[in-house]
Amino acid sequence: xxxxxxxxxTGDIVTVDGDGFVxxxxxxxxxxxxxxxxxxxxxxxxxxxxxxxxxxxxVVGLPRPDGGEEVVAxxxxxxxxxxxxxxxxxxxxxxLTPYKVPRRIVAVDELPKSMLGKVLxxxxxxxxxxxx
Length: 132
Fold this sequence. Notes:
The chain is α+β, with helices and mostly antiparallel strands. The protein has helices spanning 41-49, 85-95, 121-130, and strands spanning 12-16, 22-27, 32-34, 37-39, 54-63, 69-77, 104-107. The strands form three sheets. It has a three-stranded mixed β-sheet with strand order 5-6-7, sandwiched between helices. A two-stranded antiparallel ribbon has the order 1-2.
């Protein structure tokens, strides 16, 4: 459905730079709602991925009993490193607002991916929900 001005509503969240280039940064349906705030999984993933201990990461929202979601990260560690959840959370606290910091960080051997190499967040969410 085309909107006024020729825009097409796709459910993508985009940014437009000064030169008019559009960059898709997330999907609206993947936003995590925690404490009334919206958290972009891609933003949290970018911060975690900047840690030298992390090879790959997927961030998802898991339901809380109060109806909201908690931010949870599944991480693939670099070879030879061990999960330091407190250290990674401190890393995030230095770079993110408090409500975006993952409440749990879980080490996994690999992340489920599509044939195109895109992380399947829905499968990650199911995996983390089962591991509770």
